[in-house]
């Protein structure tokens, strides 16, 4: 028997807010969402099921986060797909931010995806370093943006002793192992 509901996917519930039971606000955006889906994130689960005002009021306001990033996290929780809100420009900085969002919202899969993408990006940086230093190719070199992103990644990875950040620290071991 064919479905007669106009909501054939979870994404349609996200877009419409149909049967939502919580509101999440960030900046000027508000989403009408569903606890059952948000609870894929331990952050949201604790907030909406614990003894917090968010659980009693069924609403949450997020500060110190950009609305497009929150949308990317919500979209991921609903669909399991990394959206362009999180992928952004396929840069080291974008994946650092994705990792930090995965950490903040306690979404292990999001952190793992960021680490995989950072592994690829750092391989590019390693090739640039090898060309410059080892092969003496002064025409290539490490672009300033890559160097700055590499430095930012080191800062993020080593600014905490949290075990959650261990995969980022491991990236540096792999990076330096690639250099002859």
UniProtKB/TrEMBL annotation:
SUPFAM superfamilies, A to Z: POZ domain (SSF54695)
SMART domains noted in UniProt: BTB
Alphabetical list of InterPro entries matching this protein: BTB/POZ_dom (IPR000210), SKP1/BTB/POZ_sf (IPR011333)
Domain spans labelled BTB: 20-86
Pfam families, per database record: BTB (PF00651)
PROSITE patterns per the UniProt record, alphabetical: BTB
Xref: PANTHER family: BTB DOMAIN-CONTAINING PROTEIN-RELATED, BTB_POZ DOMAIN PROTEIN
Protein name: BTB domain-containing protein
